[in-house]
Write a structure and sequence with these properties.
The protein is α/β, with parallel strands linked by helices and 476 residues long. 37% of the residues lie in helices and 21% in strands. It is globular and about 65 Å long. About 4% of the residues have low confidence.
Length: 476
């Protein structure tokens, strides 16, 4: 089949693409920036890329044509706390307009369970998008899922953060809300199973796992699987704003996403029917099994995608290209260089920086800076990294964003997403003479930006010198 995949660089899209290719489908990936796709050369040869932003004005030049199936995996929940519903509606309307000119038989839309009479803003937006897509010139199949559990999924990583970091929790009352979590493996089977099935045309299906659990039960089950002692005490009253701050400070989620998640966590997301599973002959796995599968992926370094790499909440917007040229003028710099004897080993350490590897010198200072960033509404260090040794353009890396990761050119370029009175880049490059260059560039914003840089000079003196020294010549 000829398939159009929107949201191809999102959490679900990155999981779905290799499955589609393995089944022999011809896939066109929709991305706002092809440099963000982060695929290996072999995969890139098998696909076609269409650069399009469904929030922009519709452009009808050079369109692909005639698809059997299109996957609609677009969402904006982590981009805004106010107008994400307007953005999602606009994207859906524009998608319909494109499809009128492109031509597609079936659209598969992954959405949320909307069985409550009164919905949160997030779930109402998902429902509104579903209705918009039903108006499109195609047969819609809507798959309504609750919490998706898998290595790298937002739900799994938030639960993981809470349980691994807090042996005792005082929680908001929404932890008693019921949900029906579903493993990402089962989501994939549903997404693949409905394509081309006429009995699934113009239909909406609830999809869920084997268990209906409260959020508290999910946390306790996770702790049991991981052999962690966990005590949970629930407060009868905790305001949504306070709940959002609680999630934001304890977990790696952004504040915008935390607000929207808390808004939805008071809604029960439980399936009303099992029609699709019966139609496809699927037996969903249990919540505990889904956790086991997630950790097998993590332990084998097979995490394909992570919600943390989403750029929708980034200060860069979506256009990495606007920052990839490091400015030369009006900037303050710290430049370090050192000769290396083991080029491959040094390069491996560069591409393993951050996350569990740390920053090779003064890690407690980096953690302090991350905590300060969290206090002022930034991303902090909690995002870590998706893979321990591999980086793609656009990946999140603690409080940095990867602009360019090129092992062949022996270069890594990062852009700071921490709260700063200016813009900052950090570059590592090994030249042909086997010299490692480490360049920190800061473009200050106003007088306060310059004061910030000079106030940090004593820390930079030790941090940057120690970092390059330990990257080039690690301590035995």
């Amino acid at each position: 089949m000829k398939i159009l995949l929107t949201g191809a660089n999102g959490y679900v899209g990155k999981r779905l693409l290799p499955e589609l290719l393995q089944e022999g489908h011809e896939v066109t990936c929709c991305v706002r920036n092809k440099n963000r796709l982060g695929l290996d050369e072999n995969t890139l040869k098998k696909i076609t890329i269409w650069e399009v932003d469904f929030l922009d004005e519709v452009k009808l030049e050079n369109l692909p044509s005639n698809f059997d199936v299109a996957y609609y995996l677009i969402h904006s929940m982590s981009a805004s706390t106010q107008d994400f519903d307007v953005m999602e509606a606009k994207a859906a309307h524009n998608f319909n307009t494109y499809m009128q000119h492109i031509g597609v038989k079936q659209v598969v839309y992954l959405t949320g369970i909307v069985n409550e009479k009164k919905l949160s803003k997030h779930l109402q937006s998902r429902s509104d998008v579903e209705q918009i897509l039903y108006e499109g010139p195609f047969a819609l199949t809507a798959l309504r899922a609750g919490i998706i559990v898998g290595s790298g999924s937002s739900s799994f990583e938030i639960i993981r953060d809470l349980c691994e970091k807090l042996p005792v929790m005082v929680t908001p009352k929404w932890v008693l809300t019921k949900a029906q979590p579903i493993a990402i493996r089962d989501v994939m089977q549903c997404l693949l199973g409905v394509i081309g099935r006429k009995e699934c045309y113009k239909e909406s299906f609830d999809i869920g796992g084997a268990n209906v659990l409260t959020y508290k039960e999910m946390l306790l089950n996770y702790a049991k699987v991981r052999k962690i002692k966990l005590s949970i005490y629930t407060l009868p009253i905790m305001s949504p704003k306070l709940s959002s701050y609680w999630l934001y400070f304890v977990t790696s989620t952004s504040y915008k996403l935390a607000v929207n998640l808390v808004d939805s966590m008071s809604m029960e997301v439980v399936c009303n029917d099992q029609r699709l599973q019966e139609m496809l002959g699927l037996t969903p796995i249990s919540y505990v099994e889904s956790i086991d599968l997630a950790f097998k992926k993590i332990e084998q370094n097979l995490v394909i995608s992570s919600w943390k790499d989403s750029i929708s909440s980034s200060r860069l917007g979506d256009d990495l290209r606007g920052y990839i040229q490091v400015p030369k003028y009006g900037c303050l710099k710290d430049e370090q260089s050192i000769a290396v004897t083991d080029v491959e080993g040094t390069l491996a350490r560069i591409f393993a920086i951050g996350g569990e590897s740390g920053w090779y010198y003064g890690n407690w200072l980096w953690k302090t800076r991350g905590l300060m960033d969290k206090l002022f509404g930034g991303v902090g260090l909690r995002r870590g990294r998706t893979h321990p040794s591999h980086l793609d353009n656009g990946d999140a890396l603690d409080f940095w964003r990867v602009l360019l990761a090129d092992p062949k050119e022996r270069r890594l370029l990062l852009f700071a997403e921490m709260r700063l009175p200016g813009e900052a880049w950090l570059e590592f490059r090994i030249d042909d003479d086997q010299v490692l260059h480490q360049i920190a560039t800061f473009r200050p914003k106003g007088l306060f930006g310059r004061l910030y840089w000079y106030s940090m000079l004593p820390f930079h003196y030790f941090l940057f010198a120690g970092m390059i020294r330990n990257i080039a010549n690690p301590k035995k």
